[in-house]
Please model this.
Amino acid sequence: LWNNEISTLLKTKYPIIQAPMAGGITSSKLVAAVSNAGGLGMIGAGYMNPFQIRNQIREIRELTSNHFGINLFIPSRVETTEDEIITSITLLQPYREQLSIQSSNQIKADDFFKVFNEQVQIVIEEQVPVCSFTFGIPPIEVVDKLKRANITLIGTATNVKEAMINEESGMDAIVVQGSEAGGHRGTFTPEIDGSLIGLMSLIPQVADQIKTPLIAAGGIMDGRGLMAAICLGAKGVQMGTAFLSCSESSAHSLHKQAILEATDDQTAITSAFSGKLARGIKNKFITEMEEHKALFPDYPIQNGLTSDIRLAAAQQNRPEFMSLWSGQSPMLARSQSVKELMNHIVSQSEKILKP
Ligand SMILES: Cc1cc2nc3c(=O)[nH]c(=O)nc-3n(C[C@H](O)[C@H](O)[C@H](O)COP(=O)(O)O)c2cc1C
Model:
């Protein structure tokens, strides 16, 4: 059961990956605990600068000698108008007032392409064993460079077409992300309906079309989910929400609490926080912004426009304005250690195989 294409590729005991979660959730303690427990811990480095990345890699190496990975965001060109930005700023103003944010809204003119290339350089210099991507496919020269450095590459797909593009680009494994998934959707083909395919439908349809080993993501919290994903054609799983609520994760305590208290019907998909579709616990911000959804500028512009709102909300303990990312199975989340979670997944899976 455990010794398969994914665990062999990742050099782990189990084909279980802790989802990279950008935004300060994947502490070194979390990543190392997962790798030490036989899974693959991953750094969510999408928003990190090269200095922070290098520091965290070195910190993790102090805590584990096992394999771990890192995840980067693929940048894309965005078109936005002055009008769109002004509209969004106007819509966000009431939240800024409720949080007593004084400064005016600033868009940071980060060059996301430059940042991405710098991140890749650190990954190579530090010889991180596994690198995964979301929001697109890395340029061919980046794929070549990483492969020459012997780094295992993992792409993300939310439909069959994206999985085929990932395979053609030479990814060693592909995360298939169902609509249940917490956090941002990895969709990079033009999204008409948001490419919201449930994992149970997505895995076998992708498995029929491609040879690259698949890693299932979305709503998986335990051994039942893992075994179901394997039955459908996946070789491993990537779990976000389940690891977020573990004691080693550095998610905001109110974020953990919101997940632990949520019911199955309380998550929603929104683009209000970032301009890109993402799933989280429904709160005041998501509900009120829903009627304006056609007006938000694309990611990363909207993300930049809401960044001080999200920061102030977290500092002031106001979950109604925080991005409380969660998958669709919050009722299966537990406040526990990584070791307890891993033991539970493994023993439950083995029991299903041999009752
Ligand atoms: C808080 C949070 C942050 C996330 N950040 C990232 C990220 O930086 N990169 C990425 O590839 N996926 C990210 N994801 C998505 C996960 O990779 C995965 O698809 C998702 O967690 C699976 O659904 P689940 O949360 O129900 O397990 C994030 C998910 C969550 C919950």
Notes: The mean pLDDT is 96. Residues 19-22, 25, 44, 46, 71, 134, 156, 177, 180-184, 217-220, 238-242, 244, 325-327, 329 surround flavin mononucleotide (CB under 6 Å).
